Request: fold
Amino acid sequence: MTLPAYLLGLVVALLIGSLFHVWRDGGAARLLLYLGLSVMGAAAGQWLGSGLKWVLFAVGPLNLGMVTLGSVLFLGVGYWLSLVEIHGNGGEDDEV
Reply:
């Protein structure tokens, strides 16, 4: 891949992560989480698309469809996992 393809993929991933943040609302920590998940998902989507030879909306060497799909998938799973609340074990240590 070329440098412009990497930069376009990065811009697309950051745009998707930012739009997800606006849609789901959250603080600065959530923004960083969404941006990171989106970039990792975009990279995984490009890698998977290249490895399996799946092409969906190719823009030069960038497989834009798989980049978008990977980014959205990682964001969805990451958001779902971030909703988990951790509670105490209910033992004697909680009675302070």
User: Anything to note?
Assistant: The CA atoms of residues 2 and 14 lie 18 Å apart.
